[in-house]
Structures are given as C-alpha cells and as structure tokens.
C-alpha cells in the first residue's frame, strides 16, 4: 500500500482515531439523579428548540480538526499535482552561427530585417506574448554551447538578453546545446530551438522540443579559404572563393586592397558548387591586405583580412670546432631561412663542449663526435615522433655512426638505436633546452639526406616557437590563438575596440576569438596583431537553409504524467482550518 | 448511619428547643396547658347566669346572696396542643449521594422532641400512597418506625388517595422538598383547613440548589425514572437557578396567602439553618 511508505503520514493518520475517541468520550452524558425534572423543563425545551445549534457547534470544531489532520496527513504523503503547461520552464536554444544573418536583401554587418535571426526573435516574442512560462532561459549554440544570462520570466527581459545573440560563430553545436538545455531545464522543461535549417531527426523533436527554422535557400559567394604564408622573402596569398548557388553560375567582383592601394580587382564567374583559388605574391613588407566580394546574401563571408606572415628568425652561434662539420651545419641552417644575423646575444649555440653554454636565453646543441666505441647504426631507429625535433624525419636507410655514450646523462631520448641514444634533449633550470646529438659525420650518411636540413629546420622552428609573440598572424574564426609573452598579464583589444584581460595558461595566453577582424594583444611593451576571418564553408552554404516547424510540446497523454509537488497547498489549507478553529474556540466563550 | 441514629441525632438536637404554640392552637385533649375555652382548671375566666344543666358546684353563692340571682363561675380549661408532622415520603427525599433523607429524619425528630418539650402531643404522617402514620409516632422520636422514603407519588396524589386525619386547631408542619409540579395552593388549603398554624419547611439538598458542572448531563428523575439529556452551560445553569427561585417564590406567596409560613433549608447546612425556624416562630429555645 503506498500510504504505508510514508511514515510521517502513518503517524499522523493515527491521530484521526485518537481525535474521534476524544470527541466520543467528550460527548458521553454523565448520569445524574435529580429530585425532579420540573426545574429542567426549560432546558429540555431549550435543547429541543436549539438542538441544532448545540449539535452544530460541537461537530464543527470536530470536523475542522478532522479536516486539518486529514490535510496534514495528505501533506505528509508528498502530494503531487498535474502541472499546467504554461507553468513549465522554457529553454530556448539560439543558433549563433553566422548563417543566421543571411538576408535576401542588401546585406550588412548589422542585423538584417529579414534574416533568420530577426524572424526567430520576432517569433519568440510572439510566443512569449501568447503563452506564459515558469521561467525562460537562453542557450547560445556556438561551437560550444553557452548559457545566456540567468533565468528570466518576461518578454522584455528576454529581449534584453537577445542583444547578446550576435550570430558571429563559425559553427553551431545544436546537439550539445540541446543536451545542455535539457540538463538546465530539467525533465519538466520545454525546449525551443531557433535556427535556420531543418531538424536533423526525430530525436530533436517530440513532445518536449520544438524546432523552428527561419532560413531560406539562397545563392551565396563566399571566401572559404584564405592564407598568407612566407614564400622566401615574399608573402604568398591564397584565397579560395566558392559559389554556393544550387543551380546557376554566378559572377562576382572582388577587390584586394592594402590600405588605399588596390592590389587586384576582377570579376569571378563560378559554376554552381564550384570553387576557385586566387593566388597573389606580395612583398613581405606589404601590410595587411583586405579582400572583398560583391554584396550577396551573407555579408560576413565577403570580407577577408590577412596580415603579413610571421617571420621569426633565430640568432645562431655556430661554435663547432670541426670546420667541415661547422660548414655542414651552416648550410643546413641557411637553408631553413629561419636564421638571422648575430646582431645580439645568440638564441641558439652549437658547440662540442660538455659544459652548458652561457647566456640566459641561449639554447644549446651539442654535437658529440668522439670516436670511442664507435658503432654504425642502420636501424631500426626509434623516433619520438611527438617531439618537435623529430617532425618529418625519415631515417630508413640512414647510416648513423656515433660513439657510445658513457652514461645516460643526456636527458630525454628523441632518436635511439636500440638502447643507444643518438639524439636527446633536456630542459635546464632556466627553461633552456640542451640538445645532444651523437654523430660522427664523416662516417654517417645523415648529413647527405633531407633529414639533415629537416632536423635543423625543426630545431629553429622549435626555438622560434618559444620566443615571445605569435606563431601565425591569420586565424580562422573559432580556432585557438596562443600568444607567448614574458609578462604575466596581457590585454586583448577586439575589432570593436573593446578590451579584455587575458589569463596566462602555462607559458602562454590562449584565447578563442569570437568575432572576425583585427585583434591586438598587448603584453607590457610588446604588442602583437592577428587577423581572424570567418572562413566557414558550412555557414556560407545556404542551400540547405529551411523554414518550418517541427515537434510539438503539448501532448495531453504526456502532460498527464507530469506532476508537481503541491505540498504547500495542503499545509496552507491546514493552517487556514486551524486559524478558523482557533477563532471559533476563542469566540464561543467556552461553549465548544 | 441508620434511620434510628438520624432520629437520635435529631432528638438530641431538639432538646434545646420547644415548639412555639400560638394562641390559636390552645385546643385539644385535656392537658397541662390552659385552653381557650372554659374548663375545669382553677384559673377563673368569667361569670354567667346559671342555666339548667350546669354543674351546681360552680354556682357562686356569694353573688346569689347579694343579687338573688343564680350565677355560675367559669374557669379556663386545661389542654394539650397538638403537632401534626407531615413528611414527604417520596423517593426524592432520599436523593442519592445527598444527606437529604438524614436531614429529614433529623429535622422531624427535632420537631417531635420540641413538641414534647412544649407539652404538645404529636403525630407523624408519611405522605406516600396515601397518608399513613408512622409507627410509634406518639412516642419519643427515637422510637418512631416505618420511616421510608420510597413513594413515587407526589403529595397531592397522596391527599387524593388517602387524606390524613389531622387534628383541628393543631400545628401542622410539612417537611418536603416541594419538588412536584402542582399548584401550591391546592396543598396548602388542605393543610390549613382547621389548623391553628401551618409551617412549610422546604428541605433541599445542595445538589437541588446548584446545577451540575458544565457538559453533557443525563438527568434522571428520582421518582418517575424519566430521563433527559441536556448540555449544561452557563446559560442553562442560570436558567435553572431562576426556575428554582421562581418555585420558591410561588410557595412563599401561596403560604402568605393561606397564613402559613415558609422556610427553606439546605440539608447539608441543617444545623446552621435552625435559627430560621426560630425566626418563623416554629421553635423557641427550651
């Protein structure tokens, strides 16, 4: 019996017979013999005439007490009641991807009047006017779902929160956002997805989720790739334009400018679903360039900004004793293009000494060419491919002759032959890397293979990455940007001019830009600039955009199964009954 | 305590009192008190002319010598006054859990003893199924017998079934709780008929004068066995007191109307209430 599962209710129920017993005993008549009833005739008459009054007073109090007890017993069972639909919480998932700003009219960076985002906001406003919800929460579905503000209850509060719905993201993780909304709202909540494409499946609809799409299939030309890389002493710019029209070829004018200088201007004609690359070689000294396409459905993918590629060069001091070897190494270093002239303290010292080179900023590469216990290794070599120095090495067929090391004093092995470390690295107390290379060049073929310059390219690249500043200057929206700086705090200036303080993680500041455009990181006296571009083919492709509604909230058979606690109602009722009881008792002058 | 003990107790109490005999009550059998009529005592009362049949020994020969007329001397008669004690023998006089019957016996014995002290004859009548005299009622109260309060009839019915033969010009005392619904005058007129004096002593128990505590009460009539269930509260208690007061007033008014005297006593406070009997001129200190 369910009732027995509530001990409190069981205890309270025991009070019911107790109360009845009290009243039964209280209502028993005491027998009394009198000389005559003649003096009580009035009382008999009064009782007969007013019997209802007397009977009503007693039972009224009794029944009030009985009702109060019954209410408390019911309250102790934790009663639950059907939850009306309008009393449910609502969680709205907002598609924050850039395609929500698509417009069939003149596109702009502001909110277009007929964009899916504007239509969705209006539909949400209408919904909030027509129905009431217990609470409303907004979840922004960007690459990672994010809760927008706290729970609100009114349409004006929702409109205020919607100001943060900027639709700048390169992607929308709607499935993760729905999962988050589900956790956030609980099992009684109703979910509403506002997006521009159709529901991916029935798991996103049903009786709790409604999927409203406000998109429209439209032709759109977009930059889908943009890079600016070093190419010798010049920069090479690669732009890729796609035509996301479903059926017709499209032509669009494009312009590439650098400041006020027009670098190229032409018209592209693309077949449906076709892409075309534009390659441009620029002097490395060319400042930021901007590429624009003619206005179409989506504005965000029509503009690209590319900063000059980062050229980090390392000051290398070659102190190797053997002239042949020194020449061999110099050649390899020069071939990387990452070596700069030694105009200041070296950042990398190549040497044969056992001691660590001086200099707080200098890494060391020690070449051990001793001939004691020589062994020519032909493989197999064990390579730590995850190490920056081993990237791209292919040692098959290489003869690697080296003297046997005396003890294992050379740190983490990167390349070994059996149990013989050939290349190893260790980090000293100052954070400098000390690399040891066991190699007898004249008895090895390593320097005659591509591995030789690769090894030094890896070395300089690794060293360059450890110097302050950015590794790249152009990023896709949504990618992670790491900035290495010596200071413990840095400030990010957004394209809008707003600033944000960055928190250092390990040795670098890591950030994820949320908007396209030029960003600036300032750390102490140093300042670095990087460009962020949308470059999101899936967002630019509006061929799959749809308008429609999927899913229903109200299914009576489901609603009936959902209950909410109404304990407070019974406790309140018991209080009211007890107050009434108290009033009757105090105003009856002891007659009850 | 048994009836006898109560009678002894009343007898002892009555030694302090004598029955107050009014002048109108000086009639009766030849006794020790001077009566109102001419008699054979030595106390001169009057002269009158001789009439045939008069005792020749009463002729005052001195007057005949002076006036030549036969004149006889009249002397006061000597009588014993009489007390008729009427006891209500209904069951209500033995109300359970009260000293009502004991007080009735004590009071009757007290009055009987007071009558003895006042040189009065006395008779005790029990009003049950008609009026019957108690056994040995002419003797001292401690010798009385047959006093039982078991009747279920009210006093007026007893008068109807078998009325008492009350002595003319006697003193009549009714001891009852008067708890029956009848017009007092009908009883009092019968009692007062030919009586020298009538006293009505209402003897109630404390329980008769005070209503029960508040709550549900099942009232049982001690005589009829009739039951009533009522709820006693402050209002009902006040109504009861009013009804009792009106009842007393009706008897008091009827007593005044018939020349009787009304005294109300409480059984539990009998000893303290005796001065009320003196005030009513029923008893005088012996």
Features:
heterodimer, A: 592 residues, alpha+beta, Rossmann fold, Immunoglobulin-like, 5 domains, eight-stranded mixed β-sheet, 11 helices, B: 286 residues, alpha/beta, 2 domains, six-stranded mixed β-sheet, two-stranded antiparallel ribbon, 8 helices, 32% helix, 30% strand
Q: What fraction of residues of chain A sit in β-strands? A: 25-35%
Number of helices of chain B: 8
**Topology order of chain B in helix (H) and strand (E) letters:** HEEHEEHEEHEHEHEEHEHE
Top CATH class of the largest domain in chain B: Alpha Beta
What profile does the largest beta sheet of chain B have?
6 strands, mixed
Low-confidence stretches of chain A: 45-57
Mean pLDDT of chain A: 83
Q: Tally the structural domains of chain B.
A: 2
* Largest beta-sheet characterization of chain A: 8 strands, mixed
Rounded to the nearest angstrom, the radius of gyration of chain B is: 23 Å
**Order of strands, widest sheet of chain B:** 6-5-4-7-8-11
Shape of chain A: elongated
From the 3D coordinates, which CATH architecture of the largest domain in chain A would you assign? 3-Layer(aba) Sandwich
Note the gap between the termini of chain B: 27 Å
Strand content of chain B: 25-35%
- Average pLDDT score of chain B: 86
